[in-house]
Amino acid sequence: MEERRYVAVIDFGSQYTQLIVRRVRELGFLAKLHALEEFASLEEPGAIILSGGPRSTSEEGAPDIDFRRLQEYGVPVLGICYGMQLLNIKFGGTVEASDRREYGPATLNPECNEGLFEGVSKDSQMWMSHSDTVNDLPDGCRVIARNQEGTPVSLQWGDSFFGIQFHPEVTHSHEGLQVLRNFLKHANKLRQFRIEDFKRELLEQIREKVGEKQVVCGVSGGVDSTVLAVLLKESGIRMRAIFVDHGLLRKDEGDEVRANYRRMGVDIETLEASERFLGE
């Protein structure tokens, strides 16, 4: 169903993977993060992004992907860092292991101002975080960008498979968002991202998973636990929210946390545990 098409981000373990999802949503399209084990059963993706990762493609047991299934989805694919190296191998090229890690800014020099790099300026800064690099390129592969030393940092296989060695999702890649935007232009009828729809889906998932059970939710007053507590409350399930005062909070912080939850309509229990944490 076309109305369900979304951007599937496959997680190979990069510290930036969640950022990829966020950037796609900032561009106005629905994106979901998937563990590698979920790859074979994606629900009608409109585009697929393979994230970076900390492993080397030459390592024994390194994360792999079902290339035939990837092709069967019939949608544009973008490999980032590890994802690009893996694609190069799948198309018949090679990746060279290195004992030197490249981490930090580099210069992006697109071969032309179109396709993946339409509207991207020459000598734009990009952010690198990798050890291995592509070596032999398979037949039909095109180099579409290089770094300041002439090393390929972006490849294209056919019309719908792309690879970039740098991380477009981080702000240190100054025009990374434009690169992602250009990639998504290759996808057809992607579902728009609306926070209201996303919230409604989360509430439905919570009700379905929890059912008649009760959820114990530890809250700290921080963003993550507060968002979770509010969603649990609005879902209507049975919830017990517990705030642990361990005696290491800033002056009056405990009172501020309790006041904030009252303002949001979330009932919390306070567990006074300073003696347990600070006592001998």
In short:
Helix content is 28%, strand content 27%. With 280 residues, the chain is an alpha/beta fold. The longest helix has 16 residues, at 195-210.
- Describe the global form: elongated
Spans of at least 5 consecutive residues with low confidence: none
N-to-C SSE string, H for helix and E for strand: EHEEHEHEEEEEEEHHEHEHEH
**Overall mean pLDDT score?**
92
Work out the helix count: 8
Could you give the order of strands across the largest sheet? 2-1-3-4-11-10-9-6-7
Residues in helix, %: 25-40%
Structural class by secondary-structure content:
alpha/beta
How much strand content do the residues show? Answer: 25-35%
- What multimeric state do the chains show? single chain
**Separation of termini?**
62 Å
Question: Gyration radius, to the nearest Å?
Answer: 23 Å
Number of strands: 14
The main pleated sheet reads as:
9 strands, mixed
